[in-house]
Amino acid sequence: MRHTKLLLLALFVAAATPAFAKRELLQAYLEMFPPYGCTRDPDQSRFRVDPAYTVNGNKVCFTARVVPCARPGSACCKPDVDFNKLEFFVGTTCKGSIDRVTVDGERAQMPTFELYGAKQNKALYKMTNLNLTTRTAEGKQICINLGGPCPTMQDLCPQARLRLARHRRRLHRRCCNQNLSKIEWWTKDSCRGSVRAAYLDGVKVDRQWAKKTFKLPQLNIAQASIPPEGLELCIELISTASCSTLSTFCFRGDKGMCTYSMFNSDKKCCPINTYAALPSRRLL
Asked: Which residue numbers delimit the Pherophorin domain (predicted)?
């Protein structure tokens, strides 16, 4: 069966993409789809997904397309752009509904389900490592197997709309090969005073608070000084404080994740990401 419902596409560039944003937008991004600072103009994208998709039992397939760039010269239109990750805006009750992903019949990495938004009232599925390029993406079939609480596309996508977000990887973007100036975490105002200390490779570093934000403001780490094995960054929480674990310290910690942003020296690059909020007082 072939479906021709209009798919609302939110094709974007993330991961290595610069988030030209002020710190105050850290929370605002998390209310949007996709919940990142990214390029959202579809005219700057080299990729599309056909609005019509096919259904065969519980298998749903989408067709990738490579299109000319409508804004020549933009960073997202350069020849080495790729199609690395696809995200679906889905219903909040659909966790466990996608149990298989394939690209042209080859099994891909399992997707991850994530709630987001201050009220945790939005959800998405991430499908990573698609590894498509402008040379290989045209006509490729990206398929998912549905089941669980949302066994059909009508169940999976709220208001009968499918929103898709496309990620790319690129090593020569403006935000690559930058020095690290500071890191900020989305936290709660009630957690002020819960941090005993922060350490970078065992050396204590300065820390500050702002509204719903905990930050390490003066890291000033040169990119060339970071060893291949990386640097260990630790936040030590006070065991008797109101926020004694990452699950209570991070704004979305009760959902199993912490949200943070890393800034370069001129604050024009501040990509947002998450990591697991494990129940430990000393972890990153």
From this structure: 33-159, 173-271
- Burial string for 60-99 (b: 16+ CB within 10 Å, else e) reads bebbbebeebeeeebbbbeeebbbbbbbbbbbeebbebbe
DSSP string over 18-55: -----TTHHHHHTTSSS-SS-B--GGG-SEEE-S-EEE
- How many folded domains does the chain comprise? 2
- Segment 20-54, tens digit of pLDDT: 444 444 556 667 777 776 777 777 888 888 878 88
Residue 281 lies in a domain: no
Full residue range of the structural domain in which residue 203 is found: 182-276
Per-residue tokens: 78: 């350069």
Do 58 and 148 fall within a single domain? yes
- The phi, psi pair for 55, rounded to 5°, reads -125, 130
DSSP string, 147-171: -TT--SHHHHSGGG--EEEEE---T
Query: Are residues 197 and 79 part of one domain?
Result: no
